[in-house]
Amino acid sequence: MYENTYPDKRFRLTLAFLKKHTSGNEKILDLGVENPFSKIMKKEGFEVANTTGEDLDNDQSALKNNDYDVLTAFEIFEHFLNPYTVLQNVKSDKLFISIPMRLWFSPAYRSKTDPWDRHYHEFEDWQLDWLLEKTGWKIIDRQKWTNPVKKLGIRPLLRRFTNRYYIVYAEKIKNA
Questions:
Q1: How far apart are CA 53 and CA 154, in angstroms?
Q2: Could you report the per-residue pLDDT of 69-107, keeping only the tens digit for each?
Q3: Residue 31 near residue 73, CB atoms below 8 Å
Q4: Which residues neighbour 21 within 8 Å (Cβ) at sequence distance 6 or greater?
Q5: What is the dihedral of CA 142, 41, 137, 125, to 10 degrees?
Q6: Which domains does the chain have, with CATH numbers?
Q7: Can you give the pTM of this predicted structure?
């Protein structure tokens, strides 16, 4: 079973959530270039295409021109300056988004070496919920989980009890 195949807690829980809400026969467009989780989805039998690295804040043509039944956006929305426009241009009626949640004890992530690897948005759950509502989506299911790390200190201790990841499954509201 996949629970033992993928040691990363985030991957195990994301896969279980995806399988809970999809038939497995739907075509998936995964935002972002191919990544470890899109490879897992393919290994599990999902038909997955990825976007090609274009700046999705400025160019949503991949959302408009690809053939897909489900859009997945796993840990990419925090990198967008303009997630509102991205959500407005989704063609499918099904959407999965996971985000790292904003933590009160840790600043937003910003790579010191990669100018593109930074979090513009670190959402609280209600902020992502509101964004989805404003762009015509209804949340059907949601889940949160912690991300404990094997280090000593106050922050690692807080990570054992504070939810870090938030995932939602949403469907497009007709005539929205």
A1: 37
A2: 999 999 989 888 899 999 999 999 999 999 988 766 566
A3: yes
A4: 94, 96, 140, 141, 169
A5: 40
A6: 2-172 (3.40.50.150)
A7: 0.86
